[in-house]
Amino acid sequence: MSKLIYSMISSLDGYAEAEEGGLGTGAEDPEVHTFINDLFRPVGTYLYGRRMYETMVYWETARNEPDQPPHILQYAEDWRAAEKVVFSTTLESVSSERTRIERTFDPDAIRALKAESDQDLTVDGPTLAAQAIAAGLVDEYHLFITTSVVGGGKRFFPDGVRLDLELVEERSFDSGLIYARYRTR
User: Where is the Bacterial bifunctional deaminase-reductase C-terminal domain (predicted)?
Assistant: First the structure.
C-alpha cells in the first residue's frame, strides 16, 4: 500500500499560503530544489485542487524555456511522468498529459487509489489537504519551513483537527529553510 503525503512550503508561523502572497525565501535555492526533486521523484500520483494545478502545470512546458538549470529540467521531467488528478467543479479541461479531472473529493476512492498503487501519492494545497486530513487519509506530512512570519492566510494544518505525529526526519539548509517530515502515529 502506498502512502499519501501532504507537503507544502510553510511560513514559520504555519501558513501554506500568505494573505499578501509570498512565504519567504529558501525554496528557490538550487540545493533545496534538488532535495525536493530527489524526495518526490518516486511519487506516482499528485492530487491537486484547481488553483494548485494551475500553479504546477508550469512544469509541463518548463523544459521548453531556454537556459533552464539541470535541477529545474529534472523536476519537470519527474512531474510530467507522474499521474495528476485535479479536483475541481469549475475546471473544464487540463493542459497537461497524464491528468484527469474529478468533480468531487471521495475519500473512499482515495483509499482505493492508495491500496492499488505501488508508488506514493501527494495531496497538494491546503484546501484539498484539509479534506484528506479530515478523512484520516494522510500518512506523512512534509513541511518546508521558511524564515518568514506572515501573520495570516491559509494554514498548513486546518483548524479543528488534532493529530499525533512522530518526527522521522529533519534537515536544515544554508538558506535557512528547514525540512521536517512527520509520520502519523
Answer: 3-178
d(CA 157, CA 73): 31
Question: Strand ranges (DSSP E) for the chain?
Answer: 4-10, 15-18, 45-49, 83-87, 99-102, 121-124, 140-145, 153-155, 165-172, 178-184
For the stretch 90-123, pLDDT in tens is 999 999 999 999 999 999 999 999 999 999 999 9
pLDDT, position 1: 86
Its sign, for the CA torsion 21, 24, 28, 33, is negative
Amino acid at 1: M
Check: CB of residue 45 under 8 Å from CB of residue 121.
Answer: yes
What are the pLDDT digits (tens) for 1-45?
899 999 999 999 999 999 987 786 666 789 999 999 999 999 999
Count of structural domains within the chain: 1
Q: Is 59 in contact with 75 (CB distance < 8 Å)? A: yes
| Cα 104-116-106 angle, rounded to 5 deg | 15
Q: How is residue 53 written as a grid cell?
A: 494545478
Question: What single-letter amino acid sits at 68?
Answer: Q
Residue 63 DSSP code = G
- List of residues 6+ apart from 55 with CB closer than 8 A: none
Domain boundaries, position 119 = 4-184
